[in-house]
Specification:
mainly alpha, globular
Length: 193
Amino acid sequence: MHTTTDSRPAPERVAERAREIMTALSRDPEFSAFTAAALKYDEAWTCFTGFPVISNWDLDADKRPLLTEGLRALALKAAVYELGGQDENMTEIPIAVPVDEMMHAMIAQPQLLARIANRIGIAVIHQTDKEHHDYTTGDYTHTAYVHAWGSPPERYWVDHTEAARRLDILDGKYAAAGFLRSGKAHTIDFATA
C-alpha cells in the first residue's frame, strides 16, 4: 500500500539531507572498496527486466553512471526514513526500474554497506516486496531528486509507463529467442542443443 506524499517529509528537506548523506558516503574510508565491489557485481547482472529497459544498454558504459544514480536513490530513501519517523513503508518511494536494479548490486555488498551506513548514521531500507517501480516525472521522488541534484538523467530514470512499454518490446524479443515470461522460463533443451 502506498503512503500518500502528504504524509512524507517535504521534498526540499529530503533533498538537503540526501545531499548530506551522499557527501558522507563519498568520504567514508570504505567507499572506494564498496563502489569497486558493487561494480564488480557485473558478472551477476543477468536481469531481463531491469537494466535492459535502457535504450542501447551497455554494461561497461552504463554501470558507473548507474552506480551514481543508485547511490542517490539510496540517499533519498535514507533521508525519507530518517525525516519521516523511521516508517519503512513510507521510505519505499517510487524508483525507476534500472536504478532499482543498481540498488540490488549495492545491497549485494552487505558487510561493506552495513559498516558504512553505521559509521555515517543512516539506515538502508530496501525491501523487495514493498518497493515501487512506478516512478514518474513530477512525482515525489522526482521532486526530491530535482531539489537535490537537478533533473535526473532520463536514460536511467525511465518513467513507469515507458518502462512497461519497453518491457513489452523486450518480452517479444525474448520469446522469439525461446525465453518466456521475460526470462523466467525458456524452451532450450541443452541435451539436444
